[in-house]
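From: lab user (bench 3)
To: helpdesk
Subject: output format question, protein + S-adenosylmethionine

Hello, I'm new to running complex predictions and I'm not sure whether the block I got back is the full result or only part of it. Here's what I submitted:
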Amino acid sequence: MAGDRMRNKAQPGHPADPSAPAAHLPVLFAQVMDGLRVVEDGRYLDGTFGRGGHARGVLERLGPGGRLLLMDKDPEAIAEAERSFGGDARVSIRRGSFASLGSWEQARELDGLLFDLGVSSPQLDVAERGFSFGKDGPLDMRMDPESGESAAQWLAHADEREIADVLWTYGEERQSRRIARGIVARRAQEPLARTAQLADLIGSIVPRGKDKSHPATRSFQAIRIHINRELADLETGLDAALAALKPGGRLAVISFHSLEDRIVKQFIARHAKAPPANRRMPQLQDFVPVLADVGGGAIRADDAELVANPRSRSAVLRVAEKLDADGRKAA
Ligand SMILES: C[S@@+](CC[C@H](N)C(=O)[O-])C[C@H]1O[C@@H](n2cnc3c(N)ncnc32)[C@H](O)[C@@H]1O
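Helpdesk reply: Thanks, we reran it on our side. This is the complete output you should expect:
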């Protein structure tokens, strides 16, 4: 695939295909299908099922002997997977983080594996999930509402410094300290329980930016990343993915945040290229690559997709192939 940048044309299963369901627009669909290079009797895992846009595309390319393993942290995504594909003998479904895929017996010798990171449109659209500053709901933000602390619970006890660090690190929020101070002052008066309360509070502290985005955009993103341990899951998930792929198998990861993309990029580079020679590590001469970057670096949406799906603006896809034990491409 290196060099042959993939085009986003109407492919089977893509919403541009009139036979596909219209509601959800999977990002970089054609590029993901090309990157995974789906073969009829292959074994694939979609670690972030969401509403199944990419999974549907993989299934349409699989023959009766193929397998597709589906995961998602979100019980509503899993319920949708059961409704749509529960009756398909080629499909297995498991609820949980892709960080735990190593413990799934069936997730072995994979031909391809996809992580399409971040939140799904339904998570953002349903006020009760508490992800959106634009829709009032309980301040939750958990992809798995039965695991870990909600955003409200965390904001009720986290100290000011920790809140500021999260806003700065995951949201690059320049007003992180002022917002953290404001949160701690407000919670002494009343619990912060609703998304609108937090959005209004941040709006009263941070002026609207030149780009007219809501002042709470960066803070909500940062709190969501923290609450769901998104970067730690990604690091663990990438290691598990590499172990689960067979030589020749493809790893495709779509990121929406620069910190995520940096983790993916460095992961691929670490397994593809020997680090520069270093006096203290002479054994590096024996470096055998485990992965090859077959996507030619970052793959982004083309103009047509940018117009059709604004969510694709920040999407970056990277594709790598697992090499054989000698560091060569599998035949
Ligand atoms: C961008 S959506 C995926 C959309 C999907 N590719 C589609 O075409 O419908 C991201 C999904 O990944 C899930 N998710 C995020 N992090 C996860 C993790 N560590 N493990 C499992 N699922 C995760 C979210 O719950 C959400 O449903």
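A quick orientation on your result: The pocket of S-adenosylmethionine is lined by residues 24, 26, 47-48, 50-54, 71-74, 77, 97-99, 116, 118-120, 143, 233 (CB under 6 Å). Let us know if anything else is unclear.
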